[in-house]
Amino acid sequence: DGGITQSPKYLFRKEGQNVTLSCEQNLNHDAMYWYRQDPGQGLRLIYYSQIVNDFQKGDIAEGYSVSREKKESFPLTVTSAQKNPTAFYLCASSHGQPQHFGDGTRLSIL
Amino acid sequence: KQEVTQIPAALSVPEGENLVLNCSFTDSAIYNLQWFRQDPGKGLTSLLLIQSSQREQTSGRLNASLDKSSGRSTLYIAASQPGDSATYLCAVQVDSNYQLIWGAGTKLIIKP
Question: Is residue B8 within 8 Å of residue B107, measured between CB atoms?
């Protein structure tokens, strides 16, 4: 089945720790995106990538980093510099529009 | 700066009713407007996409309209069912890089 797989579903971060969220797609899409979703707010773009080995900052990139070494994979690292990381993180991919989404990773602070 | 607003934040209606969800945006310079559905703890599923040159799109019991001049879109759901209960989000594409600006969503509850 074609789709986007995000793992893990739940993740806990200790103070000072970096954590990495996985996003894999088998839709053969060139573009991939990371969003953050907080209660009562719209999705906010963290990073996006339109092609392998290239990515761009979104509106809230501070405290996050990404890589795009393979077309299928776009991992997101939440660094210790992100002081308020508790949120629901969504990965998406697309060939034009619309975007297709994974089921998300919920990140909490221990 | 483009802003997208969805009012109300939550809506509860009896099963079988027709209903309308609202989405407004501040800048009419958009490429398209999209409606998505999100079930609790899940990702988003695309429902309808309206290009900036179009006035409406239909899929089954769903009909979305777009009025760029007034900065408004509506999502009409006919004969609502309990399975329609979800959060509905709208988003506008604002540039050629496919970047979307999102509303906060309307949480819809259909009572059996």
Answer: no
For residues A85 and A36, what is the distance between their CA atoms, to the nearest angstrom?
A: 9
In three-state secondary structure terms, B84 is helix
On chain B, the residues whose CB falls within 8 A of the CB of A101 are: 43-45
Q: Note whether A23 and A75 are within 8 A (CB).
A: yes
Residue B70 per-residue DSSP state: T
Whether chain B has a CB inside 8 Å of the CB on A42: the answer is yes
**Residue A67: which pLDDT band, with cuts at 50, 70 and 90?**
very high
What are the phi and psi torsion angles at B84 (to 5°)? -80, -10
User: Which amino acid, residue A103?
Assistant: D
User: Which residue does chain A place closest to B8, by CA atoms?
Assistant: A40
Task: Please tell me which residue of chain A has the smallest CA distance to B35.
Answer: A98
Q: What span, in angstroms and rounded, lies between the C-alpha atoms of B4 and A101?
A: 20
Tens of pLDDT, residues B47-96: 999 999 999 999 999 999 999 999 999 999 999 999 999 999 999 999 88
User: Between A and B, how many residue pairs show a Cβ–Cβ distance under 8 A?
Assistant: 57
SS3 (DSSP) at A22:
strand
